[in-house]
């Protein structure tokens, strides 16, 4: 317990850093994922190509490489932001590719007749997607979205290698102070468990309330 009690502020700072990365990157991933999923099912060919390229590139790019590209590449083009913002961009964009595919799979579960009926009533593509298809698709994608966001929370550990304050990075300071590396990582693991189990609990509640009855 000494590792935790004597360094509670350090753990707390790392925990809040990971929590912030998770929350902000999740919001960004959901927004971009929704946009790209809409592109992938759009009737316009160029939008489908855009969505496909986005997903293919990001899903097949190592997250660490994406961090290097964002944190070290964007400043070369004059975009200078705090490293935490760059980390949110990298995490959010990477995860958005997976969110996009989850949403697209949910959209594909909705019978085509639903969309055809909506179009026969004079609805536009946006109205059909927003008012008819997505509300039904959302019910079936709650669990996989939760799993994807849990993975995002764990992936945020990479940000510590780029001078971003987060939970895993606390082990460096504690190791230099001579604390047991085993107990240092035990309490780091507890912090991640708190975050991931909280996400799981939220999505379990959402699934019970809005999920598809089995």
What does the model show?
- With 214 residues, the chain is mainly alpha-helical.
- The protein is 78% helix and 0% strand.
- It contains nine helices and no strands.
- The longest helix has 33 residues, at 8-40.
- The radius of gyration is 20 Å and the shape is elongated.
- Keywords: Amino-acid transport, Cell membrane, Membrane, Transmembrane, Transmembrane helix, Transport.
- Residues 15-203 form the ABC transmembrane type-1 domain.
- It is a multi-pass membrane protein.
Note the main attributes of this structure.
mainly alpha, 214 residues
The percent of residues in helical segments reads over 70%
- Structural class label: mainly alpha
Radius of gyration over all CA atoms, rounded: 20 Å
Largest sheet: none
Instruction: Classify the beta-strand content into a percent band.
Output: under 5%
How do the SSEs run, as a string of H and E? HHHHHHHHH
Overall number of strands: 0
Ends distance: 44 Å
Subcellular location: Cell membrane
Domain ABC transmembrane type-1: 15-203
Protein name: Amino acid ABC transporter permease
Membrane topology: Multi-pass membrane protein
Compile the SSE list and pairings.
Elements: H1 2-5, H2 8-40, H3 45-59, H4 63-73, H5 83-109, H6 112-120, H7 125-155, H8 170-176, H9 181-210
Helix pairs in contact: 2-3, 2-5, 2-7, 3-5, 4-5, 5-7, 6-7, 7-9, 8-9
């Amino acid at each position: 317990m000494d590792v935790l009690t004597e360094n509670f502020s350090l753990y707390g700072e790392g925990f809040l850093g990971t929590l912030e990365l998770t929350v902000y990157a999740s919001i960004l991933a959901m927004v971009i994922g929704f946009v790209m999923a809409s592109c992938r099912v759009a009737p316009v060919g160029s939008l489908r190509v855009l969505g496909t390229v986005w997903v293919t590139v990001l899903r097949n790019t190592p997250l660490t490489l994406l961090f290097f590209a964002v944190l070290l590449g964007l400043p070369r083009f004059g975009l200078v932001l705090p490293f935490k913002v760059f980390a949110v961009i990298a995490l959010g964009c990477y995860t958005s590719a997976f969110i996009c595919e989850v949403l697209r799979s949910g959209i594909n579960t909705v019978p085509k007749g639903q969309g055809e009926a909506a179009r026969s009533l004079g609805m536009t593509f946006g109205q059909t997607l927003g008012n008819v298809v997505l509300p039904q698709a959302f019910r079936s994608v709650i669990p996989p979205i939760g799993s994807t966001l849990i993975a995002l929370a764990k992936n945020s550990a990479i940000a510590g290698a780029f001078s971003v304050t987060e939970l895993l990075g606390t082990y460096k300071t504690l190791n230099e102070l001579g604390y047991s590396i085993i107990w240092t990582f035990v309490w780091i693991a507890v912090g991640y468990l708190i975050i991931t189990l909280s996400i799981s609990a939220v999505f379990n509640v959402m699934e019970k309330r809005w999920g598809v009855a089995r």
